[in-house]
Every structure is written in structure tokens, then in C-alpha cells.
Design goal:
The protein is mostly beta strands. The protein has three helices and 14 strands. Helices cover 14% and strands 40% of the residues.
Length: 163
């Protein structure tokens, strides 16, 4: 008995989960808890944690799971059998659930003046202070050069968040 991952048809995950259950398979389809604003109202939505993927518990045979409606394929290992997902991963995901949904930690918001480190380019290794985000994933930093402070705009990929 082992868990494996199944790739499902996009936007038809519930169909695939239903047919897997009808064929006797236990499935696990982790979902997130997200709060959004729609038409001026705050609503709670539950998108999938892994869109178009679900975990399937294989007890004896797995071939019928592959051919269920809505299932594109099972994730296979090099020898053509389903790749095993360790039980601890499923248990860890289930341990994070509250009322059937997973709450992800909110990312830390950067504020003006946060220390940042430049990872690449001509200013590599310099420390600077965060000044804000610019269009096209660029960051404005305040760097000290030759006794003066200069504002520079660098790609987000060249900045360590935070230093």
C-alpha cells in the first residue's frame, strides 16, 4: 500500500476524484484557504494546493486508476510503475489542515528601509535599503557609494529578500 501522484485534467479534478472513488481508490486533494475580494466583497475560496494533481492510495493494483475518467496519467518512476510519495509528506500536509483547508503563512511585507543585499550585477555584495517596487519586477534600492547615497533600480532576481 503506497501513495502516488496522479495528473488530472485541468478544471475537471472533481470528475476524476469521483471516478477514482467509484473504482475503490482513496484520494487526497489538498486545498488552500484564500481570502479574496470579489465585486467589493471579501470571500473565502479554496483553490487546489497542487492544481491538476491529486494523491491516490494504491492498495493492490494501479492500472484502473490510470484509465479513470479525468485522469491524464499517474506519475511513473523509471521502471514504469507509479512513483511512491512518502507517507510522511501526506501526513505533513494533513497536519497543516484546519477545517479541511491549508492555511499558508503570509509572506512578510517589505517596508521602506529594510536592509537588502545585491546578489548579482555590478553592485554584487553591496548592502542597500529597500525603497520600493517598480514595474516589471524591479526593485529600487538606496546604496552608499563614495560617501553619498544613490538610488539604483535592479531586477528582483538580483536582490536577497531581506539581507
Amino acid at each position: 500500500m503506497f501513495w502516488c501522484a496522479a495528473q488530472l485534467q485541468a478544471q475537471r479534478e472533481h470528475l476524476a476524484l469521483k471516478f477514482l472513488a467509484l473504482n475503490g481508490y482513496e484520494t487526497y486533494f489538498p486545498r488552500l484557504r484564500e481570502h479574496r475580494v470579489k465585486r467589493g466583497r471579501k470571500i473565502e475560496v479554496a483553490p487546489p494546493l497542487f492544481p491538476s494533481y491529486a494523491f491516490v492510495l494504491i492498495r493492490l493494483q494501479w492500472h484502473t486508476a490510470r484509465w479513470c475518467a479525468g485522469v491524464i496519467s499517474l506519475i511513473l518512476s523509471g521502471d514504469g510503475t507509479p512513483s511512491h510519495v512518502p507517507d510522511r509528506i501526506i501526513n505533513d500536509l494533513r497536519a497543516r489542515e484546519r477545517d479541511g483547508l491549508i492555511d499558508l503563512p503570509k509572506p512578510r511585507r517589505l517596508t521602506i528601509g529594510d536592509p537588502m543585499r545585491v546578489l548579482g550585477g555590478p553592485f554584487e555584495g553591496h548592502l542597500g535599503l529597500y525603497q520600493g517596487m517598480k514595474p516589471r519586477q524591479r526593485v529600487e534600492l538606496l546604496l552608499s557609494f563614495l560617501g553619498a547615497q544613490q538610488r539604483v533600480i535592479l531586477p528582483k532576481a538580483e536582490i536577497a529578500w531581506p539581507a
